[in-house]
Amino acid sequence: MNALENIKNSLIDRILATRNEQLLEAIKIIFDSTQSEEIISLSTEQIEMLSLSEKDIEDGKLVSESELSKRDSKWLS
Question: What is the rounded (10 degree) CA torsion for 51, 55, 68, 71?
Fold first, then answer.
């Protein structure tokens, strides 16, 4: 289980255990205020770049984070 799932499960447990209605209302307000139904429109170029990225992934053209760091260090030297 990753850190995000641990946080979610911990919050769920605490929400289920509380009887504090004001706390639950405050949590609801936070969730309601952070939900966004904004639709993001991508440009043709952005869609093309995402398609190319997906193709690279399918073809195994990947660079690990450690290799990228090595390349950055070499480039910055």
Answer: -100
